[in-house]
Design goal:
Keywords: RNA-binding. InterPro entries: NusB-like_sf, NusB_RsmB_TIM44. 82% of the residues lie in helices and 0% in strands. It is mostly helical. It has one domain (2-55).
Length: 57
């Protein structure tokens, strides 16, 4: 889980050329492949908060 969040956070901060929704969706899909729906929702919420802080969107 930690690596999914790290990679997603990195992409949100360093890859402004990729849409926010695309990044979040991809990492939620990765989390869903390994964890239950609850954890996927956690990844979604956390990366959304990071995106709002880092990108202002």
């Amino acid at each position: 889980m930690r690596q999914i969040l790290r990679a997603g956070t990195y992409e949100l901060i360093a890859r402004a050329d990729i849409a926010t929704a695309t990044i979040i969706s991809e990492y939620v899909d990765v989390a869903h492949a390994f964890y239950d729906k609850r954890e996927s929702g956690f990844v979604n919420g956390l990366l959304d908060a990071v995106a709002k802080d880092a990108r202002g969107s």
